[in-house]
């Protein structure tokens, strides 16, 4: 199962080349990931039990000019380890795939400032979103 | 070959709710370094066209250590790791160099770039002038942003 985030494009997401800047795609991924986490991993009740990004890659496949219709950012889980997990993303609309991306995250105890094991609840939730990498 | 060195000032608001510099902001630091290298430095050495159009085809970032706001800038070293016919690849390290010369690396990254004709909306080949400038930063055995699994 994939989590889908409806992502609006803001006017100032575009750079001098007239398309959404490469850095902004990473923001879109972050918005989708945080939306996924807050809706499904319920960090809202325990915000210190978050996770941090330790690696990410983004392949840019097509430019995004300004648009009033939102983009869809799909996010799903490709691996679950002891204290880390991998995500895959696609940024698309009904007709075009604009970017593919991956992220590796480490479960992190923010108050202790150290990695922590993935909890049983988190694991159960993440497992519902496991799919193969695209 | 020497690396291109850019000092990027941190902003307080670069930090997120976890009180460290957000992962997205590292890409912005890379962009500052890349623009300084390709749009400011390279045109002075005969590669003016890069500033008129080059697009990112791929980024990879390995986050090595958290970075907190402080008064000083962070150092971004940039080099060229590969040059193809119609693309080239940059490597980067985001780091501090301490007084005793110790290097504290916060991120290692790479970017594949494609020279792009914005008017025709299509990629173009790397020109001879661009190749000369890029070759002056060539380092094919630099660190890679590879992922670690836990």
UniProtKB/TrEMBL annotation, chain A:
Coiled coil: none annotated. Keywords: Hydrolase. InterPro entries: 4-hydroxybenzoyl-CoA_TE (IPR050563), HotDog_dom_sf (IPR029069). One of its GO terms (molecular function) is fatty acyl-CoA hydrolase activity. This is Acyl-CoA thioester hydrolase. It comes from Haloactinopolyspora alba.
TrEMBL record, chain B:
Keywords: Hydrolase. It comes from the Bacteria. One of its GO terms (molecular function) is fatty acyl-CoA hydrolase activity. CDD domains: 4HBT. It holds the Pfam family 4HBT_2. Gene3D superfamilies: Hotdog Thioesterase. This is Acyl-CoA thioester hydrolase. It comes from Haloactinopolyspora alba. The lineage of its organism: Bacteria, Bacillati, Actinomycetota, Actinomycetes, Jiangellales.
């Amino acid at each position: 199962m994939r989590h889908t985030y409806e992502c609006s494009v803001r006017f100032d997401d575009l750079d001098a080349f007239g398309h959404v800047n490469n850095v902004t795609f990473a923001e879109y991924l972050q918005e989708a990931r945080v939306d996924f986490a807050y809706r499904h991993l319920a960090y809202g009740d325990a915000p210190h039990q978050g996770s941090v990004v330790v690696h990410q890659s983004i392949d840019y496949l097509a430019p995004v000019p300004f648009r009033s219709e939102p983009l869809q950012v799909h996010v799903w889980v490709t691996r679950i380890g002891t204290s880390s997990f991998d995500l895959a993303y696609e940024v698309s609309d009904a007709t075009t795939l604009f970017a593919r991306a991956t992220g590796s995250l480490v479960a992190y105890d923010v108050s202790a400032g150290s990695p922590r094991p993935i909890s049983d609840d988190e694991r159960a939730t993440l497992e519902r979103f496991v799919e193969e990498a695209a | 070959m020497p690396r291109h060195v850019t000092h990027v000032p941190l902003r307080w608001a670069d930090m997120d709710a976890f009180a460290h510099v957000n992962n997205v902001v590292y890409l912005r630091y890379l962009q500052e370094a890349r623009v300084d290298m390709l749009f400011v430095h390279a045109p002075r050495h005969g590669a003016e066209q890069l500033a008129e159009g080059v697009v990112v085809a791929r980024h990879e970032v390995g986050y090595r250590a958290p970075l907190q706001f402080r008064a000083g800038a962070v150092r971004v070293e940039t080099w060229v790791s590969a040059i193809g016919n119609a693309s080239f690849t940059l490597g980067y390290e985001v780091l501090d160099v301490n007084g005793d010369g110790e290097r504290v690396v916060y991120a290692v990254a790479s970017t594949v770039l494609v020279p792009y004709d914005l008017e025709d909306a299509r990629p173009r080949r790397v020109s001879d002038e661009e190749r000369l400038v890029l070759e002056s930063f060539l380092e094919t055995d630099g660190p890679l942003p590879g992922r670690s699994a836990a």
